[in-house]
Amino acid sequence: MNKTIFFVMGVSGCGKSSIGEGISSYLSIDYVDSDDFHPAANVEKMKNSIPLTDEDRKPWLDALNKMATECVEKKQPIVIASSCLKPSYRKRLQQSIEEKVVFIYLKGSFEKINARMKQREDHYFSGEDMLKSQFASLIEPENNESIDFIQVDIDQLNIQETISNALSLLKAKAYI
């Protein structure tokens, strides 16, 4: 396996957790949801539909980078679901382990993802305004960004098809 840290990224509601769990199961490696690493203050803000600032995200991104770096040091591959909305976040997440990281960008339309979010229960991140804030913050990965990534269009695919497509793209790029 050429890459050992797989960040499954996209806006809330795009399927990061389900896709990440599917990829980790296929690869027989651990899966972590980055939401579990948010400080309590961040969770409280999101519960109250208050978008996080870049400053709010710094300790969260640093905790994720620390965990990913420890996984690289221990030679333990891992799949991490994380929004990774901006190039600065992705840079911070892969700091000092760039050659081991690949981002799996789950690209979808606001309409499709909003419809999915309306079906979710018991998730602290909800509401159309919060999703709009994520789309407003999202800067899609680009080839000039100095990251390794694949892009999977999720609008026309179910979860299993998305997982299969992501795995095919990872194989085609020799990341796995």
Please provide the ordered H/E string of secondary-structure elements: EHEHHEHEHHEH
- Order of adjacent strands in the largest pleated sheet: 2-3-1-4-5
Structural class: alpha/beta
Radius of gyration: 15 Å
Overall geometry: globular
Determine the mean pLDDT: 92
Regions with pLDDT < 50 over 5+ consecutive residues? Answer: none
Q: Count the strands?
A: 5
Strand percentage lies at 5-15%
Major sheet, described briefly?
5 strands, parallel
What share of residues is helical?
40-55%
Our count of helices gives 7
In whole angstroms, the N-to-C terminal distance is 5 Å
This entry's quaternary arrangement is: single chain
Explained architecture:
- This protein is of the alpha/beta class and 176 residues long.
- Helix content is 46%, strand content 14%.
- It is built from 7 helices and 5 strands, in the order βαβααβαβααβα.
- The chain has a 5-stranded parallel beta sheet with strand order 2-3-1-4-5.
- α1 packs across α7 (159-172).
- The protein is globular, with a radius of gyration of 15 Å.
- The model has no long low-confidence stretch (mean pLDDT 92).
